[in-house]
Design brief:
It is built from twelve helices and eight strands. With 296 residues, it is of the alpha/beta class. It is elongated, with a radius of gyration of 21 Å. The structure holds guanosine-5'-diphosphate. Guanosine-5'-diphosphate binds next to helix 6.
Length: 296
């Protein structure tokens, strides 16, 4: 599971603090040195680490905290709150259009989990009594269309496809119309990914964006790739104005750097977390729950 090593290290630091009746400024400094190292080793962006540690220090070193009955616990609580803030504070909800359908564009590099996540999101929406339409607009990756169709069948969600000879922009346009005509209230567009970000990919995404005016542009990133995921998110965001990020593969042994840095670096909230290959392994992302999980 993700965060295991970070979690273990932070718990170590804090069990030392918790054991102390009185906490000195030097104790706090020592604990923060260890927290800093643990975060860096978890592949958290170094600037994010620096800001984080200085905020926690500022709040921890002071009469009120140090003279409290349980200074160790108070400091752990400060860290918990700052970790939650770092990941966005409160849960960032999926947008809902006043004029259905709500259009969601899924973007990301190939292999990040975009197609699977599109279907998982459809399933999640179905559970909330919505009627999502999946749209096969990744016409370049062999088998992407078929993959979406198979997933659609599995969850009994309609899949809109015009094969691989029509442009993705046209597919997206017609799909939104199809949803309107058929009373489907969410449209999830699975766009093409590439191995690397390139101009052609961005151009196509921008065109789809301008034609369908999505309510959400969700970037799917692989949490296992750490700071690379954050860099990818930063580049996409500069070109496409993302509304949120989906972190996938959090069931793997990701060190956690992407989850802890992406909001601070890009300003984009993490809206969902994917924790497995199964179709129902997608959850709304709760910063406070994730922080508590990390701190154990
Ligand atoms: P795309 O190229 O971005 O559309 O990626 P796919 O949706 O085809 O996913 C690539 C691979 O990652 C597939 O084998 C998925 O089953 C796998 N995958 C996607 N999300 C997760 C996840 O949260 N956890 C795990 N373990 N695997 C995932």
């Amino acid at each position: 599971m993700a965060f295991e090593s970070l979690s273990g290290r932070l718990q170590n630091v804090f069990s030392k603090l918790r054991g102390k009746g009185k906490v000195s400024e030097e104790d706090v400094n020592e604990a923060m040195r260890e927290v800093r190292l643990a975060l860096l080793e978890a592949d958290v962006n170094f600037k994010v680490v620096k800001d984080f540690v200085s905020k926690v220090k500022e709040k921890s070193i002071g009469k009120e905290v140090m003279n409290s009955f349980t200074p160790g616990m108070v400091i752990i609580d400060i860290v918990n709150k700052e970790l939650t803030e770092l990941m966005g504070g409160s849960q960032a909800k999926l947008a809902k259009s006043n004029k259905p359908p709500t259009v969601i564009m899924m973007a990301g590099l190939q292999g990040a989990g975009k197609t699977t996540t599109s279907a998982k999101l459809a399933k999640l929406l179905q559970k909330g009594n919505h009627r999502p339409l999946l749209v096969a607009a990744d016409i370049y990756r062999p088998a992407a269309i078929k993959q979406l169709q198979v997933l659609g069948e599995q969850i009994k969600a309609p899949v809109f496809s015009l094969g691989d000879q029509t442009s993705p922009v046209e597919i997206a346009r017609q799909a939104v119309q199809h949803a309107k005509d058929n009373g489907l209230d969410y449209v999830i567009i699975d766009t093409a990914g590439r191995l690397h970000i390139d101009e052609e990919l961005m151009e196509e995404l921008k065109q789809i964006h301008s034609v369908v005016s999505p309510d959400e542009v969700l970037l799917v990133v692989d949490a296992m790739t750490g700071q690379d995921a954050v860099n990818v998110a930063d580049s996409f965001n500069k070109q496409l104005a993302l509304t949120g990020v989906v972190l996938t593969k959090l069931d793997g042994d990701s060190r956690g750097g992407a989850a802890l840095s992406v909001k601070a670096v890009t300003g984009c909230p993490i809206k969902f977390a994917a924790l497995g290959e199964k179709i129902d392994a997608l959850e709304p992302f709760h910063p406070e729950r994730m922080a508590s999980r990390i701190l154990g």
